[in-house]
Write a structure and sequence with these properties.
By secondary structure, the chain is of the alpha+beta class. Helices cover 16% and strands 35% of the residues. The strands form three sheets. Strands 7-3-4-5-20-19-18-11-16 form a nine-stranded mixed beta sheet. Strand 13 and strand 14 form a beta hairpin. It is elongated and about 70 Å long. The protein starts with 25 loop residues before the first helix and ends in a 6-residue tail after the last strand.
Length: 399
Amino acid sequence: MYEGHSLTQPVQPAQPKSKSSRRASDDMSSLSESDDGDYQCHVEEEQRAAKRANVGGGSSSASSPPTCGDAMSAAATPPPSAPCMRNGEEVQWSVRFAQGSAFKMFVENIISVLVECTFQVVKTPDFQGLVVESIDATRVCLLQGRLSGQVNTLEPAPQTFCVKMAPMLSFLRSISPSFFVDLWCPKNSTDVVVKLFEPKIGTHAPSCRIRTLAVPQESCQLEGLVFSIFCEIDLQTFRTTIKTAKDHHADSITISVYKPKRYAPAEVGARRLRTHFLVISYSGTDASCEFPYQSTTEISDTDDEDGPQIIKATEAAEREFEALPPKNELDLVYESNFGCESIANFVKTLDRSCLTIRLGSNSPLLLDYPLGSSSCVAAKGVKGGGDYIRFICAPRLTG
């Protein structure tokens, strides 16, 4: 899925998907699409046209029943799509976010890694909103994410646009937590418009038109990657470790996972415990440091020894060892090097307490960060439920 230290993959063209009925969130269900006075879909035109077609002129030919050929011709002609309006202009698509602060946080997480970002406007039976998948300029880091919103579009296929992130974040700095965010693309334009407004009030509704960029779309598929280690770690602890490495002018960090050579689970009363050690180390120009975290998890007789290993690095639990044993008493399960700068940039904007690290042989580092009310992402499978931001970093080549 990636080669060497690069995550670049060939472009995968989007496949058209069928339209689905709108699935609005509870926060948005009480607000109709015309409450801000400028968002209306003209859907009555077809009905009026149908009524005019059915009005006869009094002759017998006007009231004659349709023939089989007429029915086939009508079935072969699709009904015209109803145009959507914003600020008095027809639009190609629009997305509404009921929580402006969540949209602002989404943009802040993106700009910590990317200068430019490619978005997809997606509406499927399973999800509707914005989807992100963009590679940074160094071709080492990939950012994925999604944020739920109410989508209206005339096209069933995902709509794609790319913008510079700085103008968007600058406009969102004054957003109020009670504001809604509308995002749309005018029909005869390549620009993207962002509008802030308070529902039911409408006294203050600033808008910003942002120019889009014509850049080739690149994709990196994660379905073929295998992650055998899932580590849940306190965000503040991990962020402090990475910041310390950066302060010591370390260019990269080494992430290692060990298990005792005596790997038979320890018996503690009626429970069986399994121990792992997550070690983050680096060598900088000023100092060399090692940060070991012991994880003791309870297992059952049915657990697969070769299955995914769950590590809870900073959870307060019963410990099997007082400290990290000598390396000759440990078996190395995993080890790889990653750039320090990009990881530090990503974690500095996060504000929740839980971060999931996914590790695997011949796979990149994946940091999984849930948005909204989601908890830490489940261990099995790459795709998690709810909104999220994922940071994927290719390992440094050694030798």
